[in-house]
Amino acid sequence: MTYDEMEREINDIPKFGANASLSNLTAYLDILDHPEASLRVIHVAGTNGKGSVCAYLESVLREAGYRTALFTSPHLVKMSERFRINFQICEEEKLIFAWETVRNLMERGEELHVKPLTFFEILFLMALLIFSKENVDYCIMETGLGGRLDATVLTRPILCVITSISYDHTAVLGETIEAIAGEKAGIIKNGVPVVVLDEENGAFPVIEAEAEKKKAPLYRVLSKEVRIFKNTKNKIDFSINSSYYKNNHLSVQGMAEYQIYNGALAAVAMKILFPDMDEKTVQKGLMAMRWEGRMEQLMPGVYVDGAHNPGAVRQICRSVRQNSNSWILLFAVCGDKDYSSMIRMLGDISWKKIYITTIEETRGADVSEVTKYFREYTECPLYGFEKAEEAFGAALQDKEDGDNLLCLGSLYLVGELKRQCHVTGLESEDVR
Predict the structure, then answer these.
(1) Which residue, among 291, 281, 345, 271, has the nearest Cα to 315 in the 3D structure?
(2) What sign does the CA torsion over 240, 242, 247, 248 have?
(3) Among residues 155, 150, 178, which one has the least CA distance to residue 166?
(4) Are 150 and 144 in contact (CB under 8 A)?
(5) Could you report the per-residue pLDDT of 150-171, keeping only the tens digit for each?
(6) Ramachandran region of residue 391, left (φ > 0), alpha (ψ -120 to 50) or beta?
(7) Strand 326-331 and strand 403-408: pairing?
(8) What do you get for the CA distance between the two ends of the chain, in Å?
């Protein structure tokens, strides 16, 4: 079997399905003799920032000399991006072997008294099979959706982290911040420490109650206690001032202000796990972190960000306002997102031009519908394109010296544009 054949087979599996259940997945773990049992897992949930927090944790651990495993979602270009050992994408042969192992079990389902797995459950089991054989010191696992019923909740963490909570996937997770927080808090285990970002939006009391119920030590990072004291083009210096952790000498790469909160969560998590870890190690790890699709610079003056809900877009708007350059926006979004709220926030920015497109993903919102909302909130020139590559080409052609182009609204859009840049050779050597 080739890697491409493996991807095609897995992509044919339903992303969600009636067969998804923790009891069914547990049966597979029983058959496989619980590969998760050998892993020291750091489990990360939340609405925004999960991937970045995972990447910061991984980078600091690797800087400290530990061997790491990292499981995240979604991928941008290739499925293999979800599986990393010491941040290197897993070898294709190992992925194929893991898939064939899981597929064989599903084919023997009736004999083994198990039902077929869903797309994410398969990838989760593949990760466990691979990582359990890699002699890793720590495994960082990102939830796929929610927490309480997510496949990754069947791991045995030594630490849990809950990031920023906002409105997203409300049809599944609930229509209030409190309900969503309750689902995310489902990752908390009895007696296992948990680090939480408190943005004073109603989420923290729910998480606090669950931690108390589980007798889990709780470490709160108040967003207002994380402060920027210097913001340059490529680096943000910030401080943490909490009752149990103070550090005035932390920095993160890039211009996305929201990363200071993700970096702070990672720094506090490391302090809890390793009280004696040198703060220079934490700082080097934070600065060394690279995570694609989060205010990532594809080429000079061209940025992509996968922000796809109101909370994430609010943070992006804050970063854009801090930059004095003129900005062009390229926007595409999935149809099941709250894009009217996102567009209302984006309408407060003085964009030079806005290019609206759709994404290959079948859930992509209609260009004319999105354009209608933009007309309600902005008077800047609007241009619609049915294909993202055409919109991107037009935006690049119109971009002048001194302009920044921001491509925003979906990680699917980020993936499409990164594939296009790779195929056409548009990526700048300076920012690869």
Answers:
(1) 345
(2) positive
(3) 178
(4) yes
(5) 999 999 999 999 999 987 776 6
(6) alpha
(7) parallel
(8) 31
The Cα 360–Cα 364 span in angstroms is 7
383 phi/psi in degrees, rounded to 5: -135, 130
- Between CA 358 and CA 356 the distance in angstroms is 7
Contact of 128 with 37, CB cutoff 8 Å? no
Q: Is the dihedral of CA 279, 280, 282, 286 positive or negative?
A: positive
Q: pLDDT tens across 342-394, in order?
A: 999 999 999 999 999 998 766 788 999 999 999 999 999 999 999 999 999 99
Q: What is the 3-state secondary structure (H, E, C) of 34-103?
A: CHHHHCCEEEEECCECHHHHHHHHHHHHHHCCCCEEEECCCCCCCHHHHEEECCEECCHHHHHHHHHHHH
**Phi, psi dihedral angles at 314 (to 5 degrees):** -60, -40
Q: Are 382 and 346 in contact (CB under 8 A)?
A: no
Question: Which residue, among 41, 117, 299, 320, has the nearest Cα to 331 in the 3D structure?
Answer: 320
Contact of 217 with 194, CB cutoff 8 Å: yes
The answer for residues whose C-beta is within 8 angstroms of residue 114's C-beta and 6 or more apart is: 24, 27, 28, 31, 105, 106
Nearest to 156 by CA among 195, 191, 116: 191
Amino acid identity, position 250: L
Task: Tell me whether residue 50 is exposed, middle or buried, using C-beta atoms within 10 angstroms of its C-beta: 0 to 12, 13 to 18, 19 or more.
Answer: buried
138-142 vs 41-45, strand pairing mode:
parallel
